[in-house]
Design goal:
four-stranded antiparallel beta sheet; Rossmann fold; Arc Repressor Mutant, subunit A; five-stranded parallel beta sheet; alpha/beta; about 220 residues
């Protein structure tokens, strides 16, 4: 499961972010000041850190400086819109910068992009006798290459990266087509059906009524 550390002094915002992450199966841990957030970042094993700038004890920039060695990707969250602050955060090594208030779908889309760029997105993913070579954009099944459209490839890779997680149609639209994509959810259904058929995933890529889909891991019964 993807584990995300939320360092945000506004308890309500932190809880909202944690609830948003839980919808897509991500685990969220909250810390409400810079010092405890930095300590948790260094001792915990997280896939991503969401870091507010205006924090008590230590501000976000100071936290960023102190946790560089842990190597965890960081997205800054802030109400500040000053370009200089944005540049400073990025120069310190942040992967992205989101200005509050933000929509839940935007946050999830930004998180997806950062996770894809990080080590959490491997160059090659193996699932039974299926192998996805992300760098070469090739899918093989039992050693034979399967022809997929670019979007079909992106769809199966997304599911491979989010096994055992319920993925809504809106979530998949956001991740594969971009969160501003205004196409109908039928687009998702068609692509999932094609991926399921071409890769023999009828019993593994299951439909969740009125919600979306889930790719069950190889360890699932």
């Amino acid at each position: 499961m993807i584990s995300i550390l939320i360092i945000e002094d506004d308890v309500n915002i932190a809880k909202m972010i944690k609830a948003t992450l839980s919808i897509v199966g991500y685990s969220g841990t909250c810390r409400y000041d810079g010092r405890s957030g930095a300590e948790e970042a260094m001792k915990g094993s997280y896939d991503l850190i969401l870091l507010d700038i205006m924090l008590p004890e230590m501000n976000g920039f100071e936290v960023m400086e102190s946790i560089k060695s842990c190597g965890t990707p960081v997205i800054f969250l802030t109400a500040m819109q000053d370009v200089a602050d944005k540049v400073k955060g990025l120069r310190l090594g942040a992967e992205d910068y989101i200005v509050k208030p933000f929509e839940a779908l935007e946050l999830l889309a930004r998180i997806d992009v950062v996770l894809r760029r990080s080590e959490k997105t491997r160059d090659t993913i193996t699932y039974g006798d299926l192998t996805a070579d992300i760098g070469r954009h090739i899918i093989t099944l039992a050693g034979k290459q399967v022809q997929l459209t670019p979007k079909e490839f992106d769809v199966i890779v997304y599911f491979l990266q989010h096994q055992d997680i319920a993925v809504t149609r809106e979530r998949l639209l956001s991740a594969v087509w971009g969160y501003e994509f205004e196409g109908e959810s039928r687009t998702v259904d068609i692509h999932v059906q094609q991926v399921r058929r071409k890769l023999g995933l009828k019993d593994k890529l299951i439909t969740i009524p009125k919600l979306g889909y889930r790719l069950e891991s190889q360890n699932s019964v």
